[in-house]
Design goal:
Number of helices: 13
Number of domains: 2
């Protein structure tokens, strides 16, 4: 694939655990086998320092979830439970982060201010993650480094069951270095090379953890005519290349869908004016045990016409039908949907499909989606909104990396309205003498070590 012609651009956010005690308490940064006590929280968004509420936080709030926490006496205290103010920042962890910043030739800030980043997905008991910018404008080979920060790691998700999510607090508060690059990366292979280089810098400090889960990469990808999409939780170097390649192909496919919908004359109003119709009477006659069981419980089956979407819901890379199902699940709280591009199937035969088409007045260019449940309004609206976005091409959003190197929708891309100052931690002045002491004992750069080993 010609990535230059495609207009491929990417940037990395690499998060590395530091091998010290936790960032704002004296607890050891180790994972616990079991919890000694538990509690629960319900989280709500707050205004940022801009006086606005972040759109990603609003999306999380609408899910209406309750968060349960398992805590161990050997790895957590009242700070993680948000029952005690944070202690002074761990200076050993800060020095490791400053060392990495110096190795990347970044400009260290004069004074470090801890901020609260609003996060209400349950991964922080307080509803925010503490983070502090420590350096700007570095360089990793031929790629610019925009920012370097030190922050708390999130709680570890243990289980999710509907609107109940359980986290372990052992990981919450472990110090992280976050290195964010500029969007200078020109190909998936280039992304892997830069991630590998930055990872080697981390390990050269001798103070960063090793092993699965100790380093996590997020990658932001866009192509010409597409949009910035942030993919979170890429676990390995080989996965970075494959996930970035898939995202580029997904955006190409979404732009092709946009073109097809335009050629078919579909406009926003054609989708927005659609009203879901009750088709429970048709589906009672299907051979689907799942559908019959749901209807016997008093649930309903509604069908929504999707003008112009026939043949567009099962494409290899965009997989728009699955995308609709994820939006219905994440934003509407139902298990998923069934769409016409995968019918006949699921116990729904051709005869029933034809009756559904007649009831919905669909033509050969139209598709439809089936929703089954008691409360379906939010799920239907979520699918309609995502269908409208298909007319525009690629939506800006956050997605999660899956084990097969594909991705799945998580939430809207956060805006600037997600930060406000941490009032419980005083600013930290960085003195020139301290930087000079760190400079004197900088680790050997990876490229110099490689040259030396070749000569030896």
């Amino acid at each position: 694939m010609d990535y230059e012609k495609l207009g491929f651009r990417a940037g990395l956010e690499i998060h590395q655990q530091i091998d010290t005690k936790k960032l704002f308490c004296k607890c050891p940064s180790k994972l616990a086998d079991k919890g000694d006590y538990n509690f629960f929280r319900r989280l709500r968004p707050t205004q940022s320092e801009l006086g606005e509420i972040d759109r990603a936080a609003i999306a999380e709030m609408k899910k209406g979830r309750t968060f349960f926490y398992e805590a161990s006496n050997c790895s957590t205290c009242l700070v993680e439970a948000d029952e005690e103010p944070p202690h002074e920042m761990n200076r050993e962890a800060l020095d490791v982060a400053l060392t990495v910043a110096l190795m990347l030739n970044a400009d260290i800030v004069d004074e470090i201010h801890v901020m609260r980043k609003i996060v209400i997905d349950g991964s922080a008991t307080s509803g925010f993650q503490r983070t502090a910018l420590i350096a700007l404008s570095g360089k990793a080979k031929d790629v610019g480094i925009e920012t370097i920060a030190i922050e708390e790691d999130a709680a570890r998700k243990l289980e999710e069951d509907g609107k109940k999510v359980t986290y372990g607090l052992d990981r919450l508060g472990i110090p992280l270095i976050e290195v964010s690059t500029s969007a200078d990366i020109k190909s998936p292979k280039h992304a892997r090379e830069i991630a590998e280089y930055i990872g080697s810098l981390f390990q050269s400090t001798g103070k960063c953890k090793r092993g699965l889960g100790t380093i996590r990469q997020d990658i932001n990808v866009s192509i010409k005519g597409g949009a910035r999409v942030e993919i979170k939780g890429v676990q390995s170097l080989s996965a970075i290349e494959k996930v970035a390649e898939f995202e580029a192909l997904r955006q190409v496919d979404l732009l092709e869908i946009k073109k097809i919908l335009k050629e078919r004359g579909i406009e926003e109003k054609d989708i927005k004016e659609q009203v879901a119709i009750d088709v429970s009477d048709f589906l009672k006659k299907s051979d689907s045990r799942m559908i019959k069981k749901a209807l016997s419980r008093g649930e309903r089956a509604l069908a929504l016409k999707l003008p112009g979407f026939s043949g567009l819901l099962k494409r290899k890379y965009s997989r728009l039908g699955k995308e609709f199902a994820v939006h219905a699940r994440v934003r509407g709280g139902i298990g998923g949907i069934i769409h016409s591009d995968e019918l006949p199937g699921y116990g729904i035969d051709e005869k029933i499909v034809e009756k559904l088409k007649a009831r919905l007045e669909v033509n050969e260019k139209d598709a439809f989606a089936l929703f089954i449940g008691k409360k379906l309004e939010n799920a239907i609206n979520a699918v309609k909104e995502r269908a409208v976005e298909a007319l525009k091409g690629v939506p800006e959003e956050v997605r999660k990396a899956l084990p097969d190197h594909t991705t799945e929708y998580m939430r809207p891309l956060p805006g600037p309205a997600r930060m406000y100052p941490e009032t419980d931690v005083p600013p930290i002045r960085i003195k020139r003498e301290h930087i000079e002491r760190l400079m004197e004992k900088l680790p050997e750069m990876p490229e110099r070590r490689e040259e030396r080993m070749i000569k030896e």
